[in-house]
């Protein structure tokens, strides 16, 4: 088992390396999941800009490529911001309980 | 050295002008309003290079201070009473992030009932938040301590935030003669603000203040405790060096005619000035009276307090606030605890006085000294309250 650091080994002032949230899978708090529809998506990046959890995935050509369900909290902001009409390119679906 | 006529607030603002902090974020509140109001005028007049952030509340003020300090800035603010309480969600975050923010605090009673006058209940309410706390007897001490506090908090051993307090209206609004340093002297004295490795840096990204649960929270609190222990030596060193350079030495506490005293008081802030007069009077009458003036409340200099008080027969601890704990004011409980291991234990009583700015005058202090003869240890007096 990995031994936790003692207080003398910790970095100064309650700081930790950047990006550690990546290792912490918090997606299981979600009650609704956003489902992205590739066919409808116009690649405007609104969802990517507004997502508070950096959970909109981009592919190697920087095109929207789906949702990172390991970290998405299901807040629905991406769906609300998606401008595609009449049906949005992201819809929210109930998670199975 | 320039000699000026200044109120406590003006003295603190003058110190801030000379410090020329990178960022000041503040919101006005009586009786501390003038500190940042005068300072904002210095900003408007181009006398300082400071980025002044006029925020919409003290909660925002302290939050902006934390942000600016995280970016590696030298940061100051000022507040009082309810303002300090509105900051209190952020105060322990500043200390956990080990940010050397300096706060000019003007002691004022807590609501309710609403009251704008001096007591120490606001500062005492935040005493366990990992901030250093220095009390001032007069405007001169406030000026000197604000300069020293910058040195103290920026020391690598400390790196905790600190507040320097004056007593609302009694010091903050009364004009006194103060000696100041030349602007250039202050600049050399303080030196450059040194960044630590917990500073935001685009080239070396870090996370500050992340969620910290059962496995690491305790380890993150421990360095704060250690820094508070080490701060004592740093405060002493800075106070002595200040004395050697500018002729006004400072310690953790000051003994006034205490060495051979049989009756004594322990007090903080402006009351100490009044007490000196009464002690001189009593000495002339052959009564061995003395005082321990506590300058530093956090870290609490327990060993030093015990050492200087252990030989005194009877001591009244004067608390200008009540912790409503049913066992006396905060200064009293600290002093009592400090004396627990003393070989000879003085008769120790507690006088809670002056709440909401109620005057404490020469006659009051004469009475407190005269009651020492018959006081039982552990007696708690709500001094002067009407029944
Ligand atoms: S639901 Fe919220 S967290 Fe999840 S992808 Fe959309 S905006 Fe991001
Ligand atoms: S907001 Fe809608 S259309 Fe725009 S990129 Fe996201 S899913 Fe595609």
TrEMBL record, chain A:
Q: Write the lineage as a comma-separated list.
A: Bacteria, Bacillati, Saganbacteria
Show the Gene3D superfamilies listed in the entry: 3.30.70.20
Cofactors, names only: [4Fe-4S] cluster
Q: What's the protein name? A: Ferredoxin
Q: Where is the signal peptide?
A: none
Taking the record's annotation, the residue ranges forming a coiled coil are none
Which SUPFAM superfamilies does UniProt cross-reference here? 4Fe-4S ferredoxins (SSF54862)
Region annotation (Disordered) maps to 1-25
What is the native source organism of this protein?
Answer: Candidatus Saganbacteria bacterium CG08_land_8_20_14_0_20_45_16
UniProtKB/TrEMBL annotation, chain B:
* Keyword Cell division set for record: no
Supply the alphabetized keyword list.
Answer: Oxidoreductase, Pyruvate
**Per the database record, which ranges form the Pyruvate flavodoxin/ferredoxin oxidoreductase pyrimidine binding domain?**
14-238
Tell me the Gene Ontology biological-process terms attached to this UniProt entry.
Answer: carboxylic acid metabolic process; response to oxidative stress
The chain's coiled-coil residues are none
> Which InterPro entries does the protein's record reference?
PFOR_II, Pyruvate:ferred/Flavod_OxRd, Pyrv_Fd/Flavodoxin_OxRdtase_N, THDP-binding, Transketo_C/PFOR_II
Q: Which GO terms describe its molecular function?
A: oxidoreductase activity, acting on the aldehyde or oxo group of donors
Protein family membership: Belongs to the pyruvate:ferredoxin/flavodoxin oxidoreductase family.
What's this protein's name?
Pyruvate ferredoxin oxidoreductase
The species this protein was found in: Candidatus Saganbacteria bacterium CG08_land_8_20_14_0_20_45_16
């Amino acid at each position: 088992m990995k031994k936790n650091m003692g207080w003398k080994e910790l970095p100064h002032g309650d700081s930790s390396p950047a990006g550690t949230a990546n290792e912490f899978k918090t997606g299981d708090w979600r009650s609704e999941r956003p489902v992205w529809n590739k066919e409808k998506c116009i690649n405007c990046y609104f969802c990517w800009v507004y997502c508070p959890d950096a959970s909109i995935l981009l592919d190697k050509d920087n095109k929207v490529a789906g949702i990172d369900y390991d970290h998405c909290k299901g807040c629905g902001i991406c769906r609300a911001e998606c401008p595609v009409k009449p049906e949005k390119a992201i819809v929210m679906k109930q998670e199975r309980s | 050295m320039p000699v000026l006529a200044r109120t406590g607030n003006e003295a603190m603002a003058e110190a801030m002008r000379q410090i020329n902090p990178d960022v000041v974020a503040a919101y006005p509140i009586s009786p501390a309003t003038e500190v940042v109001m005068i300072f904002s005028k210095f900003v408007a007049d181009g006398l300082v290079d400071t980025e002044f952030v006029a925020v919409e509340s003290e909660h925002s003020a302290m939050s902006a201070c934390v942000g600016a300090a995280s970016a590696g800035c030298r940061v100051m603010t000022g507040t009082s009473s309810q303002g300090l309480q509105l900051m209190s969600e952020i105060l322990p975050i500043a200390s956990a992030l080990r940010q050397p923010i300096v706060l000019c605090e003007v002691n004022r009673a807590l609501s309710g009932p609403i009251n704008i006058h001096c007591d120490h209940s606001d500062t005492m309410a935040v005493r366990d938040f990992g901030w250093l706390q220095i009390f001032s007897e007069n405007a001169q001490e406030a000026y000197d301590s604000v300069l020293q506090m910058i040195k103290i908090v920026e020391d690598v051993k400390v790196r905790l935030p600190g507040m320097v307090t004056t007593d609302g209206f009694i010091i903050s609004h009364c004009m006194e003669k103060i000696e100041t340093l030349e602007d250039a002297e202050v600049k050399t004295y303080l030196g450059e603000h040194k960044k630590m490795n917990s500073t935001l840096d685009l080239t070396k990204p870090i996370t500050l203040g992340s969620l910290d649960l059962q496995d690491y929270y305790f380890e993150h609190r421990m360095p704060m405790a250690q820094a508070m222990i080490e701060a004592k030596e740093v405060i002493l060193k800075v106070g002595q060096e200040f004395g050697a350079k500018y002729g006004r030495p400072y310690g953790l506490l000051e003994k006034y005619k205490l060495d051979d005293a049989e009756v004594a008081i322990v007090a903080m802030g402006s009351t100490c000035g009044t007490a000196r007069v009464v002690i001189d009077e009593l000495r002339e009458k052959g009564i061995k009276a003395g005082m321990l003036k506590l300058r530093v409340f956090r870290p609490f200099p327990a060993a030093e307090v015990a050492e200087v008080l252990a030989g005194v027969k009877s001591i009244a601890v004067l608390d200008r606030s009540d912790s409503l704990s049913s066992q006396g004011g905060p200064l009293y409980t600290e002093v009592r605890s400090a004396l627990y291991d003393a070989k000879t234990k003085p008769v120790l009583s507690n006088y809670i006085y002056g709440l909401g700015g109620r005057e404490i005058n020469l006659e009051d202090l004469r009475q407190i000294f005269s009651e020492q003869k018959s006081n039982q240890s552990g007696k708690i007096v709500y001094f002067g309250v009407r029944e």
